[in-house]
Amino acid sequence: MIEAINTLLRRGVDVRRPEGNPHHLKVSSSVSYYPTTGRIVPDGRHALPQRGLVALTQVLSDGLDRPIM
Questions:
Q1: Which is nearest to 69 in space by CA: 31, 32, 39, 43?
Q2: In degrees rounded to 5, what are phi and psi of residue 44?
């Protein structure tokens, strides 16, 4: 969890730990990330097949964290 937070902060990503949920991070305004499993879940979508912190940083750089219109 701490590694993920530090990596994302170094990259300038708005990352937060939702109150009352110690198992996931809110990354940007529209992506949830679960560090223990590597699961990446954009809001309103199913979990992505990609897993892990490296995949998350790629998803963010590809712009897949934007909300569905």
A1: 43
A2: 80, 10
Give phi and psi for 53, each to the nearest 5: -65, -40
Burial class (CB in 10 A: 0-12, 13-18, 19+), 33: buried
Tens digit of each residue's pLDDT (9 = 90 or more) over 44-68? 899 999 999 999 999 888 876 554 4
50 contacts 39 by C-beta, under 8 angstroms:
no
The pTM assigned to this predicted structure is 0.84
In this structure, the strands spanning 25-27 and 31-34 are: antiparallel
Q: Residue 24 — φ and ψ, nearest 5°? A: -140, 165
The three state secondary structure string of 13-52 is: CCEECCCCCCCCEEECCCEEEECCCCEEEECCCCCCCCEC
